Give the backbone structure.
Amino acid sequence: MKRFSPWGVILILAMLDQFTKILVLRFIPFQESIPVIPNFFSLTHVYNTGAAFGMLHDSNLFFVLLATLAFVALIVMRKHFQGGLMQTGWILLLAGIIGNVTDRLRLGHVVDFLDFQFGSYHWPSFNVADSCICIAATLFLLSSFQSPSKLAL
């Protein structure tokens, strides 16, 4: 089976992130919610000018610079991401960085809209790019439990 180009996958994921955010901007008024699964999952239009889950509020320029440095470092260090989990994580991380930096440069904030709650617990809203970044972190963690021989695959 022919392998996909990592750059093509990165582009598709970044475009999917931007497409979903454009839909939210167009069809869901700011701070409004559309319940998908009542009392569990909603599409909620919110902005984030800080880090994950709203930490470091109003730090947009700092995060653009930090993400740009991380992006460049990941490109330079690409050969160190060996094995399926690490390579997939690398792809997802780059796509997530591109998606959120695009928002920060274009809008001055990140658009979040995936909103989960369970009982009285409410998870902070997030987006497709955030999902890519979190899955990448999970894959990097899982790869740390693999033997060195499996990483060389």
Remarks:
- The chain has one domain: 29-151.
